[in-house]
Amino acid sequence: MATHFLADTAVLTGRTLRHVTRSVDTIVTTAVTPIAMMLLFVYVFGGAIDTGTVPYVNYMLPGILLITIASGIAYTAFRLFTDMRSGIFERFQSMPIARSGVLWAHVLTSIAAIAISLVLVVGVALLMGFRSGAGVLDWLAVAGILLLFTLALTWIAVIPGLTAKTLDGASGFSYPLIFLPFISSAFVPTASMPGPVRFFAEHQPVTSIVDTIRNLFTGQPVGGDIWVALGWCAGILVIAYALADLTYRRQIS
Amino acid sequence: MLVRMSTSTAGPAIQVRGLEKSYKELRVLRGVDFEVARGSIFALLGSNGAGKTTVVRILSTLLRADAGDARVNGFDVGARAADVRESISLTGQFAAVDEILSGRENLVMIARLRHLREPGAVADDLLRRFSLTEAGGRRVATYSGGMRRRLDIAMSLIGNPPVIFLDEPTTGLDPEARIEVWDAVKELARGGTTVLLTTQYLDEAEQLADRIAILHRGRIIVDGTLAELKRLLPPAEVEYVEKQPSLEDVYFAVVGDAAEKE
């Protein structure tokens, strides 16, 4: 069975990837909202926000990338939910295949789809004047953190994808996640926030991730932030994976 | 190994004894017993909510029974689920096809998942057998209900599983499409595959099945060949018009009896 896991997962991933390439609109919509926010913040609000010598588009891009990921996983939950509702899921479950392959196919597809959306967003940011002094290693580190964050959020998305009763329930969970970067250092320096809000902003996962990516982009030392960021991502990933796996086992037994 | 060989080839294809399943307070199956001989078509007949789908879900390892014993191809569905899955194909109540893929892509995918060589050739052969060659390259979303079901059944044939479950294969189809599906099922049986189908249509059971069991309120109340079932009623009386009881008469007569006893 284990020997088939990779082959089966590859076949099933090919299937879900085709779902994405045949509805390119899902990738575009994933990218459109963050791009619109980026335009709004850079050209409307940005002038009023003091980020020192850093151009505002450089300052806010890390937060926009996290919002892209958070809106991308809504489609992950949507695709999984649609599969659960159709007869094809039961067909797979009654076949002699590696059962977890069905879930991994959705997870890998989620990563691929979100990666494309991220590239689109970065492309638009470059057009808007985003410039980075980051070297190859810095970019790899940024990619690694984004990948880990995507993986963690994707496993969160698996849970509503498996358990939701309605389509809105399957994708609605992502709204708070999309909102989270607003109460962080993503758009406004936390120093300007009142006490309790500032405390929350400085101790939630997004701030450490945003600060790390921002420092990597500007070629600054990342300091201890990167370990806090990686700790959050890994922690969320482990807990979300464990819960998703438990949910899946309950559903199929 | 020897034991495994003997369990997988001897005895009936499906054996069900004392099967029970409840959803909270609702007792869906209250001790179901039946056997299906190898290579035969067996129809599980019953109205909506009689528990037909529950039986199929248990036999195809999607659901665990609360009590009782169920074997498919000689393997216990609880203890040997992986072996059962090697032995079966399930065509569920709603066409288990991928709408976004083409018909051919659906077949190739299943052939790959069954680890067959030349999945493309397997797909083309099945498209031909089920008269879907022309539609093979089109997305399934554009197919008619009958074509979808034919594709569904074709997908179930891949890898030649000895036992196939068809859960209400013609529900929601127009009469023409029903006949297409019936032909496909007969084609299966000719190849020696054991077919368990559930249906609420009496004529469907009459048309297709070697043996028919009526599932009513969680129990099998009658189980036999069509001829045996017809014999349950008193022989037709010759008056002015001779009228043989149809299976429909038998069904309502036995269902009515059981309902009164409870």
UniProtKB/TrEMBL annotation, chain A:
GO terms for cellular component: ATP-binding cassette (ABC) transporter complex. Keywords: Antibiotic resistance, Cell membrane, Membrane, Transmembrane, Transmembrane helix, Transport. One of its GO terms (biological process) is response to antibiotic. Residues 25-251 form the ABC transmembrane type-2 domain. The chain crosses the membrane at residues 27-49, 61-81, 102-127, 139-161, 173-192, 226-244. It is found in: Cell membrane; Membrane. It is a multi-pass membrane protein. One of its GO terms (molecular function) is ABC-type transporter activity. Its main location: membrane. Belongs to the ABC-2 integral membrane protein family. This is Transport permease protein. It comes from Pseudosporangium ferrugineum.
TrEMBL record, chain B:
It is a peripheral membrane protein. InterPro entries: AAA+_ATPase, ABC_transporter-like_ATP-bd, ABC_transporter-like_CS, ABC_transporter_ATP-binding, P-loop_NTPase. One of its GO terms (biological process) is response to antibiotic. Keywords: Antibiotic resistance, ATP-binding, Nucleotide-binding, Transport. Residues 14-242 form the ABC transporter domain. GO terms for cellular component: plasma membrane. This is ABC-2 type transport system ATP-binding protein. It comes from Pseudosporangium ferrugineum.
